[in-house]
Amino acid sequence: MGTATFIDIIVAILLPPLGVFLKFGCGVEFWICLLLTLFGYIPGIIYAVYVLTK
Questions:
Q1: Please, are residues 42 and 33 in contact by the beta-carbon 8 Å criterion?
Q2: CA distance 41 to 54
């Protein structure tokens, strides 16, 4: 796990859709993360960290 991944995870914790957008663009991962964040902040964080670390 490098410094870039660590920074991506920090951004994903603060703003989950932004962290996913910076990594994948406006793809399916971003829309899933945005939807989960709208339903609840914690599910959005969990999904964002999962997607960024897989």
A1: no
A2: 20
Q: For the chain, what's the residue count?
A: 54
User: Can you tell me the distance from the alpha carbon of 22 to that of 34, in angstroms, rounded to the nearest whole number?
Assistant: 13
pTM: 0.89
Cα–Cα dist 20/32, whole Å: 10
Helix H or strand E encompassing 46: helix 41-53
Please write the tens of the pLDDT for every residue from 14-40: 999 999 999 999 999 999 999 999 999
